[in-house]
Design a protein that fits this description.
With 147 residues, the chain is α+β, with helices and mostly antiparallel strands. The chain contains 3 helices and 7 strands; from the N terminus they run βαβββαβαββ. A hairpin with a 6-residue loop joins strand 6 and strand 7. It is globular, with a radius of gyration of 14 Å. The mean pLDDT is 90.
Length: 147
């Protein structure tokens, strides 16, 4: 993991083409619920964090500032790079970014198989699980209070 670098970028960057493919392959393709997912409205207003192995995007997540509350979405790590701490490092960087932008909370919707990961980062579950209209998966609302 020592050679993985992290940087914030925008949807017009050269890396974002790889992001589109990675997030579809990780978040949607395995579940056969969505045929195509490239851009959505949050792409244009979010800060995009990429994890790079040289020029290859191996991890991605984005944070959107909604009036002092940050929403984290599309957290993905290439399966070849799983279990190396990349997702955890991206979450730490989002927490730092949230503090710098004076956000009070971070929130996200976690797939059920990722709840324990987010709890290790410091997120807490909120409310009951719900069915995502976009992915067709059960999700858990979670939040992190910025201190």
């Amino acid at each position: 993991m020592n050679d993985i670098t992290y940087k914030y970028t925008d949807y017009k960057s050269k890396e974002f083409e790889q992001v589109v493919e990675l997030r579809f392959n990780v978040l949607f393709a395995p579940y056969n619920k969505v045929e195509k997912y490239d851009y959505d409205e949050a792409d244009y207003i979010s800060s995009h964090l990429v994890a790079l192995d040289k020029d290859k995007v191996v991890g991605y997540s984005r944070i959107t500032n909604n009036n002092g509350e940050g929403k984290i979405t599309n957290v993905v790590v290439d399966s070849e790079y799983a279990q190396r701490g990349i997702g955890f490092e991206m979450m730490k960087k989002h927490i730092i970014k949230a503090k710098e932008c004076n956000m009070n909370y971070l929130h996200l919707n976690a797939r059920l198989d990722t709840i324990n990961f987010y709890k290790k980062v410091g997120f807490m579950s909120k409310d009951a699980t719900f069915l995502s209209e976009k992915s067709g998966l059960m999700l858990q609302k979670m939040y992190y209070k910025i201190s």
